[in-house]
Design a protein that fits this description.
Two copies of one chain form a homodimer. The first copy, chain A, is of the alpha/beta class. Helices cover 36% and strands 27% of the residues of chain A. A six-stranded parallel beta sheet of chain A has the order 3-2-1-4-5-6, sandwiched between helices. In chain A, strand 4, helix 4 and strand 5 form a beta-alpha-beta unit. In chain A, helix 5 packs parallel to helix 10 and helix 13 packs antiparallel against helix 14. The first copy, chain A, is globular, with a radius of gyration of 27 Å. The two termini of chain A are 46 Å apart. At the A-B interface, helix 1, helix 2, helix 5, strand 6 and helix 6 of A face helix 1, helix 2, helix 5, strand 6 and helix 6 of B. Strand 9 of chain A pairs parallel with strand 12 of chain B.
């Protein structure tokens, strides 16, 4: 069988670009196993020569080596902004070469022109990484929920503002203190306007809404308020009411119209989106068939975005190779994975002993546990009832199943133990 | 352009089958808009003649009309079990016709044979609905995280047991009481063994693990404990420790082996899976690129499963028609959706007034709100400080933005109001 290869050119070698290239190299075998295709980055371009030091053999500062190459199947645009990025994406699509981008501003502002150009030139565009980092929300809306009338989207789509609000909430710090912290840890840009004022969220919401409702949604039509005026006092007070403040993206069908907006919003602490903290993102969807679904994951960071860029590259690669067959399914492979026998697993445990309430019982139990290398995290005796059987509850540190079974076996043979001990494993 | 049609035959007209057929009919236009393809159910077969009364024109009790038809592109198998289902799927694939199934037992037990047969006959198999209902977890693992080395899966994959555990937790009822309730509401089968003893979860975990780790994982190799021995006492006690008990599917890479098991498990209440209640399902994944992600949604019910069946039918339909182009993207369409102006939206509100602490102030505020049709859900004055400005916090019932702005404008002009009122909207 002919070897299937997809050759990739990368524009922009910042955080996402670097993680993308490293990911393609690191997971080459995984990708080949799952798709039967060899993915390889043949050229990476950045105006900053220093960016090339990890990839000297494929690095260039001349974008023509990517944009005009006949040996590139997919151009991955990771430059950002809407000017140079737009020009280079247009040039690529015009030549019939497919594009993958993480650029929400570009898709949101120039999507109309770009998708038209792609269709005219029979090229593909992937943009999973433009919204919500590693969360496959664009694929979910376009493919998984294709048979749904979607009615509602709620999203925490911006890691910077969510980090700031989380920080304000945990430390009762002011907006400007929290912003400084975010900048210090690299979670906010030096000029954070696009994030803080909600425009980044608006861009992303316009993309999700257009896909979900299959209509044009201009980002400029979406009412927006940022988080810059949030007072720590309101975070404290609303917390007492049982609410969290989140910069929420909202889009819901109302008759023939769309109630769509981005603003700081109170969410009750029972609401699944209220517990999304720090730089995490989440999207809640409602559809007439699927019901209520929630997707949660890392919204920012080089690896998270690179994960989505790779998934687009894989999808488009398969289409370019006319590989319409599903991903190879391992059920009929002959490689069986070694299942670790139960007795060899290690985890934490909850025990409920039913023991006589008299002095020295706990010492005897602890002694057996100790000899089997099981250390106790906490222990509670629920009732007092001298000389009668009472429950004793225990949480352990990490221990090995084999020794746990052995120890409990020994303990259950003690004369002071009146019922078989209940064992439930704990997952962190 | 030639009209693109995909003709579907359905085996089994139970809950999922009925919802699937109704969904295809109800959302025909949505599907056409999103894919450019016309999906149509041409035949549905069930041994029970009564099942056909909603679809008399396409109903049959003779499965040969589905299995031997030349006018069917995809057979949707919704019979369940591993005997007749296996025979009919084999027959379909042998003819080179593609299959979509929601049957986890079939995929888990006979996957090896079925996928081999599909490949030999160049047919497709979709099985998104076999795990976690409407949650697109199979697509996520196979496609979205194709570029990841996945390292860990945690899942709540069985609605019946999760419903029972939730019910035991809320009502301190016994296992058998909670099971009866589940049966009464249709959340448990009359013979609930497969669910209760964890075998259904094991089937599903074997499917997810095989896909995630790209190796064979036999369901019989997976250690399993059911929930039938869970004592309400342990639910109460562990709750006091801050834990919930869930029937958890666990699979994690440990060196070259796999730590894989299904058993009742304590999850701390801060763990994102601990809050998954009732018949909902959730899957937590860790990958070397994507980091930590969580998918949550309806794990049971006809519509949820039908949503996933439709997504498979759409994916396979596109492949059969060699439509390798991405889903039509609406950005360049000319249909613009009407964005509802901000002043016309209705929601609940949080207000923070800064008002002089003197008698009659609240009456004046309430009066203005009342005249604008805004009713108060709760109000708190945080401090007492006679004759000085103090914060007054208020939550409203649903009100219209326009009237809220008007009312707050009037209120802010009162001589007793010392700062502009803070307004934050609330989302349920």
């Amino acid at each position: 069988m002919k070897k299937k290869i997809i050759r990739i050119g990368v524009l922009g070698c910042g955080t996402v670009g670097t993680h993308f290239i490293k990911g393609i190299i690191k997971n080459k075998k995984t990708l080949r196993d799952k798709t039967g295709i060899e993915f390889t980055v043949v050229k990476v371009c950045d105006i900053d020569r220093k960016k090339g030091k990890s990839f000297p053999a494929i690095f260039t500062t001349k974008d023509s080596e990517v944009l005009e190459s006949k040996d590139i199947d997919i151009v991955v645009e990771l430059v950002g902004g809407t000017e140079y990025a737009y020009e280079s994406v247009k040039k690529t699509l015009s030549r019939g070469t497919s594009v993958v981008t993480a650029n929400k501003a570009l898709i949101s502002e120039k999507g109309r022109e770009i998708f038209k150009l792609a269709e005219e030139n029979n090229a593909h565009i992937g943009f999973e990484a433009s919204v919500a980092g590693a969360i496959p929300i664009i694929k979910a809306i376009r493919e998984s929920f294709a048979g749904n009338k979607l009615t509602k989207i709620l999203g925490i789509l911006n890691g910077t503002t969510n980090y700031i609000l989380t920080r304000m909430s945990l430390n009762a710090s002011s907006f400007s203190q929290a912003l400084s912290q975010a900048q210090k840890f690299g979670y906010a840009e030096r000029n954070p306007t696009l994030d803080i004022k909600g425009f980044d969220t608006v861009h992303k919401l316009s993309i999700l809404s257009a896909l979900a409702f299959n209509k044009i949604v201009y980002w400029k039509d979406i009412p927006v308020e940022g988080i810059e005026k949030i007072d720590p006092m309101d975070i404290t007070f609303t917390n007492e009411f049982g609410y969290r403040i989140k910069l929420l993206a909202i889009a819901q069908k109302k008759g023939m119209g769309l109630d769509i907006r981005v603003h700081p919003t109170l969410l009750h602490k029972n609401h699944p989106l209220s517990t999304v903290e720090g730089v995490y993102n989440a999207v809640y969807l409602e559809g007439d068939m699927a019901g209520k679904t929630l997707f949660y994951g890392e919204g920012a960071g080089g690896n998270a975005a690179a994960s989505s860029v790779i998934s687009d590259v894989v999808d488009i690669g398969k289409k370019l190779l006319c590989d319409t067959h599903p991903y190879k399914i391992p059920f009929y492979a002959d490689k069986k994975i070694a299942v670790i026998p139960m007795k060899e697993i290690s985890t934490k445990y909850y025990f409920r002993f039913t023991a006589l309430d008299k002095p020295g019982v706990l010492a005897r139990i602890s002694n057996i546990l100790g000899k089997n290398g099981i250390s106790i995290a906490s222990v509670i005796q629920k009732q007092e009832s001298p000389e009668r059987a009472v429950p004793i509850l225990m949480l352990t540190h990490t221990a090995k199943e084999e020794f746990v079974q052995k120890a409990i076996n020994q303990i259950d043979r003690l004369d002071v133990i009146k019922k078989p001990t209940v064992i439930i494993r704990v997952e962190e």
